[in-house]
Amino acid sequence: MIDSLLLIALPYVAIVVCIVGSVWRIRTQAFGLSALSSQFLESRKLLWGSLPWHIGIGLILAGHLIALFCPELWRSLLANPTILLVIESAGIGLACLSVVGLMVLFWRRLTSARIQAVTSVMDLVVLTLLLGQIVIGMIVALQYHWGAVWATTTATPYVWSLATLQPDVSFVADLPPLMKAHIVGAWLLILLIPFSRLIHIFTVPLEYLFRPPQKVVWTNPRHHEATAFLSDDEARRDFIKGMAALFVGGALLSVGALDKVFRFFFGPRLSPKEEAEIMGTRVKRLEATANEKKLELERQTSDYIFVAKLSELQAKEGKYFIDFAMCPALAFLDGNNLPNLISAKCTHLGCTVLNQVDSQGRILCPCHLSYFDIATGVPNAGAPAKEPLPHLPWAVMDESGKMVAHKSANGKIIGTAPAGNAESYSVFLAKHLAEESKA
């Protein structure tokens, strides 16, 4: 209920209020849409606050937008570990830069009498919310590593589900509370745009690009003396040379980028053989999807899921299988020659854990380095995951289908598999046992 209110209702309210409120303010208060600069009242602290804040937050927002609109390109770029490390480090550095700038701006409004006179309650609310957003983002980046990658499979599809009017909160339902708070904070900022100085983001002065040229006359004597030796013709030639150098340099730098952009949007021209290979890949994906749906249907209609022969299970290497909930799970052999079935879905962010058992009897989640004890399911101290991996109830049957041993819903093992003929016994998940464990 709380997730639906904060992650579905709030976003739509924020977007509607932002659009309607901004249009109303633009039409009724056209002269109050700027950021209402206070540079004339105090400029020294503004320089040290505004510049790092805008540089830091601008680049951070650019990264968020790339991950939102080009998730596949972003993931392919971050598949390189070096690039991922650079991006993560740069993000934390830019967040620190933004916090420093924002703290200076906050201190400036609290300590300067002139600035206090033009400071409203909404200014302080927005500054506090912005500061909270950056700090929460830094904590998330430091505590839950590689968010630049996993956010494209959680936050990005969540936002697109809202944009397509098919809200699906399941993408972010399992995220840690800090990440949810970061998302809610973003919607609150959007909600406040029409009522604060943030509305100036809609007032990009594009008309400056098309207005008639203006001649600026400097009244500063030092500037006049420094430029007095230049004639109008010399100044015009220097300007033309500078613009030509800027154009040539920009053209050289953009050649490679434009080539990549063209290939990204229009794609290469494919030969018939390449088109056939792509079609074959699509067919394989459709077949994989169909097989997955068949498996899901089987799980819904079957009372038992075959896991493996008892003889196939090992103590140090688990065998993967899919449970009734279509989630990955692992089957091991315990010290009593009986199965040990445990979920392979990490309780942190849902990654699939590895099936190799280390010397301490633990399996590893490679996403954020949580170790789980296969006997108890409990994660190691200090791990990102806080909840243990649940064990699954099981049943061992002989060749005639008779149940010779099973693990009940309360974890109690009843029966045993006679030693010496493990090939004759099979391990199953029983639906009635799984439903008992849920109850």
CATH superfamily of the domain at 2-205: Transmembrane di-heme cytochromes, Chain C
User: Gap between N and C termini, in Å?
Assistant: 21 Å
Quaternary state of this entry equals: single chain
- CATH-defined architecture of the domain at 2-205: Up-down Bundle
Structural class of the helix and strand makeup? alpha+beta
* Fraction in beta strands: 5-15%
Q: List the uncertain runs.
A: none
User: What is the top-level CATH class of the domain at 2-205?
Assistant: Mainly Alpha
Please outline the major beta sheet.
5 strands, antiparallel
Return Rg in Å. Answer: 31 Å
How confident overall, as mean pLDDT?
82
- Neighbour order of strands in the largest sheet: 1-10-7-8-9
Number of helices: 14
In CATH, the topology of the domain at 2-205 is named Fumarate Reductase Cytochrome B subunit
* Helical percentage: 40-55%
Q: From N to C, what is the helix and strand string? A: HHHHHHHHHHHHHEEEEEEEEEEH
Find the count of extended strands (DSSP E, 2+ residues): 10
